[in-house]
Design goal:
Elements: H1 5-40, E1 46-50, E2 62-67, E3 70-75, H2 76-84, H3 95-102, H4 114-119, E4 122-124, E5 127-129, E6 135-140, E7 154-161, E8 165-172, E9 181-189
Antiparallel strand pairs: 1-9, 2-3, 4-5, 5-6, 6-7, 7-8, 8-9
Amino acid sequence: MKPWVLPICFASVLFLNGCGGNISNANTSVNERSIAQTNKFIPSPIVLYSIPDDKLKPPIKELIHYETGDVSSAPLLTYQEWEDSGGHQPWRMEPFSVLQVVTTNLVPENISTKENMLYSFKKSGNTAENKDGVIIKLINPKDDSLNNPSHASKLTYKMIVPHLGSYDITVQQPQGSVDFIITKIVFNPNSTN
């Protein structure tokens, strides 16, 4: 190794450490401004799932449905068979129950477990809250109950998830079916409104 390499490296380290305070202060100012700007930034809503309206109008031969992250289709006959069998899956006829059962994947397990999403909701008027603070509100129609007293065939709920944001979820009853399906899910990051 050349005898001049070590002193130059040592001098470079001393120089950089001496200037580092100024560089660090400059970076801190920039970082503080970036953080302040980031706190004001509100991301746009993200459509996670949507069924086109034309897929819900007669003649319907099969229904596309969302179930805990999976999207598939089933012949309309399958839904009719569920109904004709005396309610093999009667919860599919209740829009709040459909929302509660098929959207459990939208809430991380470290915020609320699947069990709490299914069984720990306390209802009050048009709002329900589980023991982990997940809130589901009926937004449209403006009923005073989650039990769909106006017998609407299309309902929109807001699911507020602590530390994550909220979802606007549309539950709809396609023409010719007594069952409800999820037709749209919109995620609103960092929004609890």
